[in-house]
Amino acid sequence: MNNFARLMKAGPERFGMPSKAGFTLIELVVTLSVIAILAALALPRYIALQTQARAAKTQAIFGGIRSAAALAHAQVLATNTVTSGNTVISMEGQNVTIINGYPTADLAGIITATQINTTADQIIVTGGGASAGDLLTINTVGGTTGTCTVTYQAPAAANTSPGVGVNTIGC
């Protein structure tokens, strides 16, 4: 075989080496090691992102509840609705139950005013009620129950504000 024909060959045969198919064991081990190292570096960051996302979601619900309570109270004042005792106002075409000038701590009150969907928003609502001083707790799904929460307490008396709190320690 002349030099020109040998140079025109492709692959290992070009240098007089036999051709081979596939990868060697060393090549596979090195590739898998690199993939394992990359996965080990990415996994903690992914887990941290989930925690941060749950905390941000809980903070967003907290802000939404505060805003909805303030808007409902503003509507009560603007329409000269009774600010002591129970009443109903319409917000965005939905009836919202009011106690002492603010939404009640239940599904017909603050949850309707906030327009939260317990299924789509992946939250669990516990407690609450239509009476003054009732406490509603919203747990974010995925966090530790009781430590990734928003609480809303209906005002206990007329001309007092509701209590709204947030806890993101266990998100």
Please, could you describe this protein's structure?
The chain contains three helices and seven strands, in the order ααβββαββββ. It is of the alpha+beta class. A hairpin with a 2-residue loop joins strand 1 and strand 2. The protein is rod-shaped and about 105 Å long. 27% of the residues are buried. The model has no long low-confidence stretch (mean pLDDT 87).
Task: Give the topology, please.
Elements lengths: L2 H6 L16 H54 L7 E6 L2 E6 L2 E2 L3 H8 L8 E5 L7 E6 L8 E5 L9 E5 L4
Antiparallel strand pairs: 1-2, 2-3, 4-5, 5-6, 6-7
Helix pairs in contact: 2-3
Strand content: 15-25%
Unreliable spans are none
Structural class: alpha+beta
Oligomeric state of the chains in view: single chain
pLDDT averaged over residues:
87
Q: Tally of extended strands?
A: 7
Tell me about the biggest sheet?
Answer: 4 strands, antiparallel
- Strand ordering within the main sheet: 4-5-6-7
Global shape? rod-shaped
Order of helices and strands: HHEEEHEEEE
* N- and C-termini, Cα separation: 73 Å
- The radius of gyration over CA amounts to 31 Å
Q: Helical region count? A: 3
> Helix proportion of residues, in percent?
25-40%
